[in-house]
Fold this protein.
Amino acid sequence: MWLTKTFSIKGSVFQGVWKRSLLCGLFGLLVSFLYSNQWPVSEPILGGIIPSIVLGLLLVFRTNTAYERFWEGRKLWGSTVNTIRNLAWQLSVSLKEVEPGDRDRKIQALHLLSAFAIAKKRHLRYEAPNEELKPWVSPSQYQVLQNTDNMPLKITHWLGDYLQQEYNRGLLTVNQLASIHSLMTRLMDNVGGCERILKTPIPPAYVIHLNQLILLYCLLLPFQVVQELGFSTGIFVAIISFALFGIEEIGVEIENPFGYDPNDLPLDKICDTIIQNIEEFTHSNSEEVPKPVD
Amino acid sequence: MWLTKTFSIKGSVFQGVWKRSLLCGLFGLLVSFLYSNQWPVSEPILGGIIPSIVLGLLLVFRTNTAYERFWEGRKLWGSTVNTIRNLAWQLSVSLKEVEPGDRDRKIQALHLLSAFAIAKKRHLRYEAPNEELKPWVSPSQYQVLQNTDNMPLKITHWLGDYLQQEYNRGLLTVNQLASIHSLMTRLMDNVGGCERILKTPIPPAYVIHLNQLILLYCLLLPFQVVQELGFSTGIFVAIISFALFGIEEIGVEIENPFGYDPNDLPLDKICDTIIQNIEEFTHSNSEEVPKPVD
Amino acid sequence: MWLTKTFSIKGSVFQGVWKRSLLCGLFGLLVSFLYSNQWPVSEPILGGIIPSIVLGLLLVFRTNTAYERFWEGRKLWGSTVNTIRNLAWQLSVSLKEVEPGDRDRKIQALHLLSAFAIAKKRHLRYEAPNEELKPWVSPSQYQVLQNTDNMPLKITHWLGDYLQQEYNRGLLTVNQLASIHSLMTRLMDNVGGCERILKTPIPPAYVIHLNQLILLYCLLLPFQVVQELGFSTGIFVAIISFALFGIEEIGVEIENPFGYDPNDLPLDKICDTIIQNIEEFTHSNSEEVPKPVD
Amino acid sequence: MWLTKTFSIKGSVFQGVWKRSLLCGLFGLLVSFLYSNQWPVSEPILGGIIPSIVLGLLLVFRTNTAYERFWEGRKLWGSTVNTIRNLAWQLSVSLKEVEPGDRDRKIQALHLLSAFAIAKKRHLRYEAPNEELKPWVSPSQYQVLQNTDNMPLKITHWLGDYLQQEYNRGLLTVNQLASIHSLMTRLMDNVGGCERILKTPIPPAYVIHLNQLILLYCLLLPFQVVQELGFSTGIFVAIISFALFGIEEIGVEIENPFGYDPNDLPLDKICDTIIQNIEEFTHSNSEEVPKPVD
Amino acid sequence: MWLTKTFSIKGSVFQGVWKRSLLCGLFGLLVSFLYSNQWPVSEPILGGIIPSIVLGLLLVFRTNTAYERFWEGRKLWGSTVNTIRNLAWQLSVSLKEVEPGDRDRKIQALHLLSAFAIAKKRHLRYEAPNEELKPWVSPSQYQVLQNTDNMPLKITHWLGDYLQQEYNRGLLTVNQLASIHSLMTRLMDNVGGCERILKTPIPPAYVIHLNQLILLYCLLLPFQVVQELGFSTGIFVAIISFALFGIEEIGVEIENPFGYDPNDLPLDKICDTIIQNIEEFTHSNSEEVPKPVD
C-alpha cells in the first residue's frame, strides 16, 4: 500500500513538472558533452551560489502558505456545510405551517439552500448556472441567475425575502428570525472568504523571485558535478530539478483549492452531502419521527 | 523512567516502519557485496542529490501539519465536553418540572447527550450503533439510528424536538431556549469540524512527492557510503531509513486522530467523562445539594 | 507560461534591488583586480563568519512576518466587503418606506456605504478626498470630509445618525437597529485594524540587524571565492547579493499592502466590487425581483 | 545581569539532564580509552547517520509545540482572571439588595469566585481541597467538595443555583442573568481547556522517536571525534549531549504548565490577584466610592 | 535611504550588546597571542560542538516568540482604540439629555475614556498617576487613583456606575446598556491581556539554555579559527558574537513592548489618537454636524 501510494501518478505533480525537469536534464547532458570535449565547464565552487538552506526555506514557506490557503478554503466550506445543516433544521422546526401551501413554500426554501451550495461551487469555478442547479430553483429564478454576477448572494437574498414574508405573516418570532439571519450572515461571509482566497494570489514578487532562484540553481548544477559524474550528469540534474520544481508545483496546485484537480477540495462530494442532508428534512413526514420520550 | 519511555514499543512507530527499513538495509547489504566484488558502485557525490535540508524541512512540515490536525481534533472534542456540560447544567437548572412525568422526560433528554457523545465517536470511526449506545436511547430511537447516515445529527434533532415541545408547554422561556439552541449549534459545528478533519487528508501531491524523495534518498545512500563502511553499510542504511520513515509515519498516525491507535485521541475515556458528568445531574436529588448560603 | 512568469519584470523585486546588487558586484570585481595584482585578499575561512543558516532563517522570518501582515490586511478588506454587502442587504430589507422621500433617503444611506469604502482606501493611502468620492456624498458632507482626520469614521457616524433618526420615526425595530449597529462596529474595527498594520512597522532593531548581516555577508563573499573564481567573482557576488537583497525586498514591499505596487492589495478593484454590489440594491425595483415561490 | 541570568541554576534544565549527560560523557571516555588501546573505534563517517538538520528541526518543533501549550494555558488563566473580574463587577452592580441578608448572600457569592480560582488551581494539580479553600466556602460546601470529582464545576453550579434564586426573587433582570450566564460559560470553558492541555500529551510516537534519535546521535558521537580529540572526547560528548537533552527537557518542563516548577505558570500569584480583585468589591462601602461626576 | 536605515544606531541593538561582543573579541585576541606563542590552542574540530543549525533554530524561535508577544500587545492596544471609539460614539448617540447638567455629565463620562487610555499606559509601565491624567478626572477621583492597584479597572467601574445611574433615570434603554457593557467588557479584557504579556516572560529554562549555548559557541570559536586567521581572530570573533547576541537581544527588547524603547509600541502616540478621537465628540455642537441627507 505504501508503495502504491508512493508511485501513483494521479494526484502527483509529475504531469506539471516533467517537461521542465527533462529540459534541465538535457542541459546537463549538453554540459557533460562539452566537458568530454575538454571545454572548461567544471566549476565546483558554484555550489554555494544559492545556499541550499535559503532555497529550502523559501520552498517550504511557499508550500506552507499554499497549504494554509487550502485549509482555510476547506474550513470555509466546512462552515458552509454546518451552517446549511443548522439553517435547514431551524427552518423545519421554527416555521409554523398554517395554510395548505405553507409546506410547499417551506420545501422550496429548503431547496434554495441546495441551490446555494451548488451556486457557490460554480461561482468559485467561474461557471454559469447549468442543469445541476435547475431542480432547486424555479424557472424564473433560473433565468435571473443566468444574468447575475454573484449567484450565491442572489440566492441568499431570495431566502431573506421569503423569511421576511413569513415573518410578516406571523409564522416566525422575532428571535427566530434574528437567529436565522445570523446564520445567513455566516453563509455570506463564507462566500466572501472563498472569493478572497480565489482572487488574492500569493504576491507575485515572491513567486517570481523563487522561480528565478530555482531555475538558476538547476542550471548551475551541471557545472558543479560534471567533473565527478561525467555522462550521468543529465540524470542527476533531471532528478534534482524534479525534486525542487515538484515542491514549487505542489504550492501552485493547492493555493487555489476550488478547481477540478485531484489535489483540490472535493467540492462535488461536499455539495452532494449538503443536498442529502437537506433531503432528510424535505422528505420526512412527522409520523416517522420517533418521539424523544416514549 | 526516561529510558523506559525511550524504548517502549507500544505507541512507537516501530510497527509501522520496520519492514521498509529492513528492505532498505538489505539493499545496502547487497550494494556492499557488489562493492566487495569490485563492482563500480561507490559514488560519494550522490550525497547531494537530495539536499538533506530540503528533505528535513519537508518532513517537519509534514509532522507539523499532522499535529495541527490532531490538536484541532482534540480542541473540537474538548469543546464537545464543555458544551455538553453546559447543556446538561442548563437543562437541569432551566427546565421547570410541573407534571409527574417531567422529571423522567428531562432525564431522557440528558441521556440523549450521553448518546450524542457515543454516537459522535462511532460516527467518526465509521461504526454502526451497538450495545454501548443502547442504554441512552429508547428502543425505537435505536432502530432509527441503525438506518441513519449521521447519528449525532439525528440525536441533536431529537433533542431539539423535545425542547420545542417543552417550550410550547411553557416550561422554558424564549431566552433560555435561545441560549440552549446556541449550545446545540456548537455541538453540530463540532461534528462538522471533526468530519472535515476525517475526510480531508493532506493533499496527495504532497504525500506522494515526499515519499518519493525519502525513498530516493534511502536508496542512494549505500552508493555514497559503501567505500567507507564496507559491510556495515546495511546497518547504517537501515538505521537512517528508520529515522526518516519514522518521522513520516508519525505524520500518518496522527493526521486522523479518531481511531484506536495509542497515538490517537482517547475518545473512549473522553466519552466516559462526559457520561459521568451527566450522571451527576440525573442522579442528584435536590435534597443533597448544599445551598450556596447557609 | 511558467517562463513568462519567471522572467516578468513587473511585480518583481528587480526595480528595488538592482543598484545594491550592482554595487556589490563592482566591489567583487575590485577584489578580483587586487587579487590578480597579488594583494593578499583571499580568505576562504571567512565563509563561516555569518552562518548561512542563521541568515537564511532570519530572511525567512522576515518574509513570513511581512506576508502575515499582507494577509491580515487582505482579511480585513475581505471583512469590509462582506460587512458592507450585509449592511446594504439589511438596510434594503429592514427599513420601511412610509413617506415619499424615504426611498431617496435610503439610497443616500446606501451611497454612504460606497463612500465608506473609497474613504477607507484613501485614508490608508494618506490621500485627501477627491472626485472619486463626490458622487456618493452630498456637497456639504464633502466639505466636512476635506477637514476631517478620519474620513471613514466620519461617514460611519453619519450613517449612525441617519439610522437613529429612522429608528426614532419607527421605521426600524430595536432588534434591527442592534443588528445593524453590530455590523457597523465591525466596519469601524476593520478601519482600526488596517491602521494598526499601516502604523506599526516591524521593529526597527530587527530590520537594522538583518540589513547589517546581509551587507556584511555580501561584502565578505569576494574574499572567500576570489581564489577559485578569479575575474568571475564580480558576477558571482552580484547574483548572490541579488538573491539575498531580493528576499529582504519582498518583505519590504508586502509589509504595507495598501499602496499602489503590483504586490499590494488590489484596493481599487475591491472598491469597485463593493460599489457594484450596492448598485444592485439602489437600482432594483421591487417588480423585477422574482418571488422565491411561484 | 546578563551573566547572572545565564548561569542561574534555578529554573534551568540542569537538574533534569545532568545525569544523562554525565553518562554520555563517561561513554565517550570509555571510547577514548579503547582508542588509545588501539581498538578500531574511529568511524568519522558516522557523523552523517542522523543529519543534524533533521535532529535540529525535530527539537525545535518539540519546543515550539510545548511552548504553544504553555502559552495557551496562560491565555486560559488570563481569561479566567478577566472573567472573574467581570463577574464580580456585574454581581456587585446588578444584584439589587432589598432584604437585610442580601448583602451577606452577595458577599458569599463573591467568595465563591475566589473559591473557584483556588479550586481550579488545585484541580489541575490533582490536589484535594485544603485550608486554602476553607475561608471562601461554607463548611457544608467544603465537605461536598472533598468528595467531588470536579471541584471548579461544582462551585460554578452553586453560583448558578444562587443566581437562579435571586432571579426568581426578582433581584436580577432576565438580561442581566443572561449576561452573567455567558460569563459563567466562559469560566467552565476555561476549566475544560486547561483539562485538555493537562490530559492530552504530545503524541507518544513523537516523543519516543525523538528520544531515540537524540540518544543514537550522542552515542555515535565519540566514534566520530575520538581520532581528533583523544582523551577530551568525554567532555566534548558530555557538553553536546547536555545541549541536546537540554532542549528536549525544556519541552518536557513547559508542556504541562500547571505544576510547581519555576518554569510553570505562577498559579499561586494569579490566584492571589483574583482574590485581591474580589476583596475590593466585598470590602467597599458605597460611601467611599467617589461619584464619577461631582 | 537603505544605507541610512542599515547604519542607524537609534533603535538598533548596538547599545545592548557591544560590551559582550567586545569581551568575546578580546578573548579571541588573547587566544591568538597564546597561539603565536606556540600554545596548543588550535582545535578546528570544536566547530561542531554546537551545530550551527541548532543554535540558528533556537535563535529564530526566540525572535519569533518575542515578536508574537509584541504583535499581540499591538493588537490589544488596537482593540482598545477601536473599542473606545465605539464607546464614545455610542455614548454620544444613545444617551438622552433631558436636564441641564446632563451634557456636562456626558462629557465627563467621555473624559473618563481618555483617562482610561492614559491609566492603562501608566499601569503597564508601573507608573503612578501624574499630571497627564489630571485633566480627565475629578480631583477626588485623582486621589482615589493614587491609592489604587489597578487604575484602568477602577475607571471602568466608575463609568459603569455612571451608566447604571443614567439607566435608572431612564436615559438609556436596556439594549443600549447591554451593548455598552459588552464594549466595556472588551476594554477590561484588553487590560487583562496586556497584563498577561507583561507578567509572563518566556520560560526561564529556555532563556538560560539559549544564553549558555551562545556563550559556549562564541568562546569556542577562537580555538577553531586561530590557525587560519592568526591575529585577525579577535575581530572575527567580535563580529560573529555581535551577530548572535544581537538576535537574542532583539528578542529581549520586543518581548515586553510597553516600555520607552524605540522598539516598543508608540503608546504615547496611541493615547494621543484616542484623546483626539474623543475630543471630536466633546467639542462638537449639533449645529455643525451636516445631516446625512440634505
